[in-house]
TrEMBL record, chain A:
PROSITE patterns registered for this protein in UniProt: ABC_TRANSPORTER_1, ABC_TRANSPORTER_2
One Gene Ontology MF term: ATP binding
One GO BP: cell division
Keyword Cell division tagged: yes
UniProt entry tagged with the keyword S-adenosyl-L-methionine: no
The protein's name: Cell division ATP-binding protein FtsE
Keywords of this entry: ATP-binding, Cell cycle, Cell division, Nucleotide-binding
GO cellular component term, pick one: plasma membrane
Native source species: Candidatus Magasanikbacteria bacterium CG10_big_fil_rev_8_21_14_0_10_40_10
Domain ABC transporter: 2-225
Similarity-based family: Belongs to the ABC transporter superfamily.
Record-linked Pfam families: ABC_tran
Superkingdom as given in the UniProt entry: Bacteria
Length: 227, 314
């Protein structure tokens, strides 16, 4: 579960806060869409959850741990428990799909035997088994995003944060990626989908949190894209 | 608990091996930048070694001159053997004196004749004299050139001065002072140039490493994204710094030994002693090697540390 309490994030005092008094509770296994126009604080919220930024005020609990108080050396361990995918995929261009996924496990010091076991499993989940030896430039946008999701799943995270994962994709690929996220959610992983794709949000019929000017404008159990 | 720690150590070891693997991978991938880094480091080390060698040769030159220095006391022809023996004993008792050699009046005359054997007029003039015009000569060597002043002062006794006709030292003193001044200047210039080279090298190395790290910025951000620790991200650059250090110091010493071997043939002509630059570097290789390796390692580690600071900011 994720509990965000009274979180405010101010980057500079010359500008209004990126986030203001955010209170949000996300239960384990939920599929939550965070929606809002550009500059409403969606990405800031993601950065706070993966400890890339620290809030100016407030606390963020993930499980039993307040991540606003963890040391810098503990951040990598947190990131191994939270899978993250971005709009720009962030794959290593000189590594194959298999190597990109392996890389996530290699940096965590996982044994080679475990890497050999896990990588084919996650590639199968995202439907990329046949493309394991392909390089990112040989893949379509959708396939690249699926490879990024496979990498995010390598550590079997309890939470998967997807920041605009369909931003660079066409309708068919968007649908494929969302279906994969739904499948991962069915396995019990909490999904936090940050998007401004109206069709996707409306099609999902899951919880929708709408951000506006750095504040939560609405939070509906089965919501729609309202903006 | 033990199993958990064992697992952590095993993971650390795997991570360490992967860090080494990534370091070699990075060097290979940025081979031109790696080559440039080593090249600049070798240039810097060579300039330091050249300055060091100049200092060593200059000191050796001073040493050679110092060894040739002595002071000669020329006695009047009427000085008796007893008087000369008294002075001999007196000087040998002085702590600064290492050697006293006495030439009798006859030996001095024979030496003079030998030196001027081709000058008939001089030899004929000597033959016309009924007596030996030379008195005995005393050649004194001291531990240090600075001690000669003390010896001269010690000899400033009226009893001795009345039988001393002349003494020769002034010219040597001037040449030693000149050489010491030159060495002092060489050391100052050398230190200045070394600091200048170190600053220039630091700036070039810092920028070379920064360019290298910037080209891998995306990869570093991905490493952070997938949960790599700062140590895991920084590690390959540290290993690269160690590799660059070993390679550059080793290459520099190969060049230094080749150059020293070539110079030795010329130096053996200049210095009568068995001085060899190769032998000097051989006997000081551990000191010089570790000193330069530590300096280069510090330079590369600090450069990469500073260049990576922004990338590693959480």
């Amino acid at each position: 579960m994720i509990r965000i309490s009274e979180v405010t994030k101010i980057y500079t005092h010359k500008a209004p806060p990126a986030l203001r008094n955010i209170n949000l509770f996300i239960d384990a296994g939920e599929f939550v869409s965070i929606v809002g126009q550009s500059g409403t604080g969606k990405t800031t919220l993601v950065k706070l959850i993966i400890a890339e930024e620290k809030p100016t005020r407030g606390t963020i609990d993930i499980g039993d741990c307040d991540i606003t108080k963890i040391s810098a050396s503990a951040v990598p361990f947190l990131r191994r428990q939270i899978g993250v995918v971005f709009q720009d995929f962030r794959l290593l261009p000189k590594k194959t799909v298999h190597e990109n996924v392996s890389f996530a496990l290699e940096v965590a010091g996982e044994k080679q035997s475990r890497i050999r076991k896990v990588v084919p499993q996650v590639l199968e989940v995202v439907g990329l088994s046949a493309k394991a030896t392909s390089y990112p430039y040989q893949l379509s946008g959708g396939e690249q995003q699926r490879a990024a999701i496979a990498r995010a799943l390598a550590h079997a995270p309890k939470i998967l944060v997807a920041d605009e994962p369909t931003g660079n994709l066409d309708t068919i690929n968007t649908h494929e990626v969302i279906e994969i996220l739904k499948k991962i959610n069915e396995f019990g992983t909490t999904i936090l989908l940050v998007t401004h794709n109206r069709e996707t949000v409306n099609h999902l019929r899951r919880r929708v949190v709408t951000l506006q000017d750095g504040e939560i404008a609405s939070d509906e159990k089965v919501g729609k894209y309202k903006l | 608990m033990m199993k958990k720690w064992g697992n952590i150590n095993y993971k650390n070891m795997i991570s360490f091996l992967r860090i080494i693997k990534f370091a070699f991978f990075d060097i290979g991938r940025n081979i031109s930048l790696s080559f440039m880094t080593v090249f600049i480091l070798v240039l810097m080390l060579l300039s330091v070694n050249v300055l060091w060698s100049i200092d060593v040769i200059a000191k050796q030159a001073v040493g050679s001159v110092k060894k040739q220095i002595d002071i000669s006391f020329y006695f009047i022809p009427t000085a008796t053997q007893t008087e000369v023996d008294d002075i001999d004993k007196y000087l040998k008792a002085q702590p600064e004196v290492t050697e006293v050699k006495v030439l009798s009046a006859t030996q001095v005359l024979d030496n003079f004749k030998a030196r001027h054997k081709d000058e008939k007029e001089t030899i004929n003039a000597l033959g016309e004299l009924s007596e030996n015009p030379f008195g005995p000569t005393m050649i004194v060597r001291a531990k240090d050139p600075n001690d000669y002043k003390k010896i001269i002062q010690a000899m400033n006794v009226p009893e001795y001065q009345k039988i001393i006709e002349s003494q020769s030292f002034d010219q040597h003193e001037a040449s030693i002072e000149k050489l010491n001044t030159i060495i002092g200047r060489i050391e100052k210039i050398g230190l200045g140039l070394t600091i200048l080279f170190a600053i220039i090298s630091f700036l070039i190395i810092f920028n070379t490493i920064r360019v290298s790290i910037n080209t891998q910025r995306a990869e570093i951000s991905i490493k952070r994204l997938v949960g790599a620790s700062n140590w895991f991200i920084r590690g390959p650059y540290l290993i690269e710094a160690i590799i660059f250090t070993i390679v550059s110091v080793a290459l520099t010493f190969v060049i230094v030994f080749v150059a020293a071997g070539w110079l030795d043939s010329y130096l053996s002509v200049i210095f009568a002693s068995n001085f060899s630059l190769t032998n000097y570097f051989k006997s000081n290789i551990f000191f010089l090697g570790s000193l330069q390796a530590i300096a280069v390692l510090l330079l590369t580690v600090v450069s990469s540390g500073l260049a990576m600071r922004r990338q590693l900011k959480v």
